[in-house]
Amino acid sequence: MMELREVTRRFGETAVLHGVSLAVPEGSFTSLLGPSGCGKSTTLRIMAGLDRPTSGRVLMDGRDVAELTPAERNVAMVFQSYALYPHLTVAQNIALPLAMRHMTRLERLPALDRLLPSARAKRAAHARRVAAIAEMLGIEGLLHRKPGQLSGGQKQRVAVGRALVRDPALFLLDEPLSNLDAALRVQMRAELAALHERTGRSFVYVTHDQVEAMSMSDRVAVVLAGRIAQVGAPRDLYERPESRAVAAFIGAQPINLVEVSLAPGAVSGPFAGWRPRGAALPARAVIGIRPEHLVPAERGAVRARLEAVEYLGAETLLHLRAADGAALRALAPGDWAPPAPGTEIALGFDPSRVHLFDAESGARLALGLERAAA
Amino acid sequence: MRLLTRSRREALTDLWLAGPATLMMIVLIFVPVLIVAVLSFTDYQFGARSFRWIGIDNYVTLFTDPIGRRAVTNTLIYVAVVIPFSMGLALLVAIALHEMATWSRTLSSILRAAYFLPVAATLVAMALAWQMLLHPSIGLFNATLSSLGFPRQDLLSDRSLVLYTLAAIGIWQTIGYNMVLFLAGLAAIPQHLYDAAAVDGAERPWERFWTVTWPMLGPTTLFVAVITATQSFRVFETVATLTDGGPAFASDTLVYALYREGFVYFKAGYASAITMVFFAFVLTLTLAQFRILERRVHYR
């Protein structure tokens, strides 16, 4: 189990990580999800041992590994650019971690490995292991090629093979799919998930693509501006975002965030037909509701003027503006016939789908909405 | 209506761009080389009205006459010493300065400038400084030797040492240039390969060097080898300013012999033959380097 405790990292004056604490349970597929520049790759490099925290501790199975190199930690890493050695064949690339680990310096010498019986035996064992890995990944036909002769997807598999070959305790993947085309990405997503299943090892997967994070992992840590904003199952992140920032980051369609003022029994703005439920009301709050939960409904309490319509096939995205000027987005089914732009339409939602956040701190409020008795 | 089709116009543009330089090449390089090649089979002397065809006599002289053979072997020894030492030391310095830049950019830049100085300076002027430094009685080198208890050495007049002294100066002069080339090569190695090597277990500097640095420097090394080879074959200034090929032709080299025969003794035919041999050496070495190394450095 890999654990970070209060890890900070500064590059000169710039702080990249501000006290990151994260535990990766044994066998889990944990994604670090965040926009570019949020510190997720730095976090991964600190886990790998390629970078060292300015302060804080890095533990593996309860042992402090701050002084251990990546190889001593027995972690494997797949890089965004694959980082294959261009001068070695695919087979040599995959076998390199084995050679570094199991062969003495003498045995690794290019000419001697054919003379020394011990080196010959090890090379043969490595070749068998490489062949088994290659077969598993479907690259057995490429073993004698150089990386320069491979396509992006093939390089990706070789990089995964090199990570797999010495049975590491932890797999670290740094945006491994971002250089692939869309169709291949979907395929590799499934293959990586299957690989995780088969090896049973912990995977830490860095990505800025929430579809990848949500679809593959059992736990997602949202990293925003050098902090872990929320850790949870993909469903938790979507259904119960702990802060306004997480709510805004998660979701295929950006969530509607409307700032309103609250008073006992009354909400301002487009949600005037509703009243807050719960104790300790702040004066101002942000109401968040996802477009897919705000749908045209004849008896809906939210009324807004239709400004533009985007037909997406399965659904239709509606751009609306409420009477007080707040912009709203709603999703209607694809077969919904939109009225002419400028028409005022009524929208309904399930109150359990509404999130309330503090207007100042952005933290989730333990409040709900209920229909005002009108 | 256009007069020419598009492909014709493009072909004309190509001709217009490459034409002038090609013409200059032909007039200033290929034609003279041809003339020199023809002259090398004659006994032509500068200013003479006529010449005789003497076949390969000039070449026979160069390779059988002790003085001619001396120039050829001296040049080969000089090249054989300068290439490996200049490249090896330049690579060491480049790696050291590259690493140093991570903790002190200023110091690295100062040292870089210092190493590059001999390249930028006029070698003839620098030769004077070397002459003073190596002077048998007042030079700093011998003062150091004798203060350490070693016998004094006259590095520029000792027949067994003079060639290696010149080679050392040649190395000193080319390290800076090769270092700059290697530094550029080092800067182009992607960091993620070092990261991958660290994860794969290549952690010691030596392992990192053999796993990543040396293979990735392949194209740079080939280029440096070719440049150093052609440069060291051309050794002339140090010979002309410090030794005049002496003592007793112990430091005579091809280009210096060519200068002496052609411009001092006006033996244009013989000088042409030396030129052709020099040309053949450089061409063979360069082609061999490309042939042998090209396939092994680009990894396709």
Q: How would you describe the overall organization of this protein?
A:
The complex is a heterodimer of chains A (about 375) and B (about 300). By secondary structure, chain A is an alpha+beta fold. Chain A contains ten helices and 21 strands. Chain A has helices at about 40-50, 70-75, 90-100, 105-110, 115-135, 150-165, 180-200, 210-215, 235-240, 245-250, and strands at about 1-10, 15-25, 30-35, 55-60, 65, 75-80, 170-175, 200-205, 220-225, 225-230, 255-265, 265, 275, 285-290, 295, 300-310, 315-320, 325-335, 345-350, 355-360, 370. In chain A, the strands form five sheets. In chain A, strands 6-7-8-3-9-10 form a six-stranded mixed sheet, with helices on both faces. In chain A, helix 3 crosses helix 5 (about 115-135), helix 3 (about 90-100) packs parallel to helix 6 (about 150-165) and helix 5 (about 115-135) packs across helix 6 (about 150-165). The longest helix of chain A has 21 residues, at about 115-135. In chain A, about 40% of the residues are buried. Chain B is mainly alpha-helical. Chain B is about 75% helix and about 0% strand. In chain B, helix 4 packs across helix 7 (about 160-185). Chain B is flat, with a radius of gyration of 24 Å. The model of chain B has no long low-confidence stretch (mean pLDDT about 85). At the A-B interface, strand 6 and helix 3 of A face helix 8 and helix 9 of B.
Put simply, the count of helices of chain B is 13
Q: In angstroms, what separates the terminal alpha carbons of chain B?
A: 47 Å
Secondary structure category of chain A: alpha+beta
Q: What is the ordering of alpha helices and beta strands of chain B?
A: HHHHHHHHHHHHH
Average predicted local confidence, pLDDT of chain B: 86
Largest β-sheet summary of chain B = none
Gyration radius of chain A (Cα, Å) is: 26 Å
